[in-house]
Amino acid sequence: MIASRDETLRDDLLGPWTCTEGRLSLVIERPGTGALTVTVWLGLGERVLAAARPARYRARDPDAGSSPNASARLDRLEVELGDVNLGPTYTLLIAGPNDDGGSWGGFAARPLLPTDAPEDVSLFPEAGASYYEVAGGVNIGS
């Protein structure tokens, strides 16, 4: 079930995020129930596009560090936009910057590391994610 307690998403990644160009913003929360929720706004809170939707963190495949499949290579946050377990699902990939083009298969986005500061972490939609895209999302603090 998607709304189960999630112990794996780092607490410092909860809170508000915004697109680099400010087109959309979101907040990742773990309210009293312990389950993750995501709310998406147009702009910086102008209009709610998806309110307190259930979400689940999915850890990357540890053997897929240089896989061309970003969903295997990177951690992801799956947000239910419709009925739980029926979809549609909005998938945000969670990544750190790859400053060394020769590592991690040469991809610009590398797997999240425990040492990555929240401000260095990016969220971006899996291809075909729909108008809820939060491309190039950056953490703006709790």
CATH fold call: Lipocalin
Supply the number of structural domains. Answer: 1
Strand order of the largest sheet: 1-2-3-4-5-6-8-9
Sheet with the most strands? Answer: 8 strands, antiparallel, barrel
Globally, the shape reads globular
* Quantity of strands, as a count: 9
Strand content: 35-45%
CATH architecture: Beta Barrel
> Any idea what the radius of gyration is?
14 Å
Structural class of the helix and strand makeup?
Answer: mainly beta
| Mean pLDDT, all residues | 77
**Contiguous uncertain segments of 5+ residues:** 1-6, 128-142
**C-alpha end-to-end distance:** 27 Å
**For the record, what CATH class applies?**
Mainly Beta
Determine the fraction of residues in helical runs and give it as a percent range: under 10%
Helix-strand string: EEEEHEEEEE
Query: How many distinct helices?
Result: 1
Q: What is this structure's SSE topology?
A:
Elements: E1 15-18, E2 24-29, E3 36-42, E4 47-58, H1 70-73, E5 75-83, E6 87-97, E7 109-111, E8 122-125, E9 137-139
Antiparallel strand pairs: 1-2, 1-9, 2-3, 3-4, 4-5, 5-6, 6-7, 6-8, 8-9
